[in-house]
Specification:
The protein has 232 residues and is mainly alpha-helical. Helix content is 64%, strand content 0%. It has 2 domains: 51 residues, Arc Repressor Mutant, subunit A (Orthogonal Bundle), CATH 1.10.10.60; 147 residues, Tetracycline Repressor, domain 2 (Orthogonal Bundle), CATH 1.10.357. Helix 8 packs antiparallel against helix 11. The longest helix is centred in the last third of the chain and has 24 residues. The relative contact order is 0.09.
């Protein structure tokens, strides 16, 4: 957006030369915003912080984006671009597993993105292409539109929900999970919550417990339910 006033109130009279010197592009601005949000989250991200991240003056950013909303549109589209689309040469459930596993990995890299993935009213080409590919995959299964809509909503509710839960866990490793569970059990009477205590002791505290491993089993439950509905 050439012609913006600079911080000192003067117009950008040599906008072309300034843009050339910074080496910026819309893509670099969006990539910088994604990297910054990965570190600090989406709410604290400001144009000024992004400019510092990119080594430019804040007003320079406006040559490439309109405002923070425009940046977020680009960031969400960049995240969608990282997610593998369902392969067209595989059976639909296997193709969807590949897509959903990829989505979970990508959202783990960008935890700020999960809550924003379906909020944009100005979606970019990667977002639109991804949705189109998923719809095509479900359509290959023989779903009519009402079932397809339910299937898409159910699958993504599971994927996004798991990603949100995983990002919010107070542990990452098996050892940390056991430590957190042990501390929690010290603060509640076991006899008052016998089922929670049994679950913790007989499952969470057992060797090899890994919350992340629950993802594939849960995804199978969702897909198996859809297969059963199709057959029915």
């Amino acid at each position: 957006m050439a012609g913006h006033a600079d911080d000192d109130g003067h117009g950008d009279v040599d906008g072309g030369a300034s843009r050339s010197r910074t080496g910026l592009s819309r893509g670099r601005v969006i990539d910088g915003a994604v990297a910054l949000a990965d570190r600090i989250g989406i709410d604290p991200l400001t144009i000024r912080k992004l400019a510092t991240e990119l080594g430019v003056r804040p007003m320079t950013i406006y040559h490439y984006v309109d405002n923070k909303d425009d940046i977020i549109d680009g960031m969400v589209d960049a995240v969608f671009a990282e997610i593998e689309r369902p392969p067209v040469d595989l059976e639909w459930t296997e193709a969807m597993r590949i897509r959903c596993r990829s989505a979970r990995r990508v959202l783990a890299r960008h935890p700020w993105a999960t809550a924003l993935m379906e909020t944009r009213t100005n979606p970019g080409p990667a977002t639109l292409g991804h949705h189109d590919a998923v719809i095509a995959c479900l359509r290959r299964a023989g779903m009519d539109w009402p079932l397809l809509a339910t299937a898409y909503a159910s699958i993504d509710a599971y994927v996004y929900g798991f990603a949100l839960q995983e990002a919010g866990l107070p542990f990452e490793t098996e050892a940390e999970a056991a430590e957190v569970a042990t501390v929690m059990m010290e603060h509640f009477p076991v006899e008052a919550f016998p089922n929670l205590a049994a679950f913790t002791m007989e499952h969470v505290l057992q060797p090899g417990y890994n919350f992340a491993a629950e993802f594939d089993t849960g995804l199978d439950l969702v897909l198996d339910g859809l297969v059963a509905r199709l057959r029915g």
